[in-house]
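Phosphohydrolase
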Amino acid sequence: MRVFTLSDAIALATTAHDGQVDKSGRPYIGHPLRVMASMEGEHAQMAAVLHDVIEDTSVTASDLTASGCPAAVVDAVVALSHLPDEPQDVYLRRVAANPLALTVKRADIADNLSPARMARLDAETQARLQIKYANALRLLAEFVS
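Structure:
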């Protein structure tokens, strides 16, 4: 069996997010690619670029496993996938329980709060996201301490 590589993860994420745009109308894939670029280590980079595929596309954990994606990466992506109607604290407790997912989530939030990204949003959205992500970081800190 061929080994699943970072290039495979990038290709899978790029295909899965094709046609999606972020809140400012830019191609969505830019976000996972930036999060990936901030990570060290192949599994962390894979989990970062794939972090939204289960939550936001038709890709499933079974699809990732069938493609040869390493189990640790699949587990992290599953942990990072916020389920419909799932309370935020339940979701973040699951993220905090997986060290790889926790690292990716922190990088995800950092990218979402980056000045360049925030500057493209209206003031109301900026304020809402600042509160949302500050709360998420607070809960993550509580759950890992």
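The chain is about 65% helix and 0% strand.
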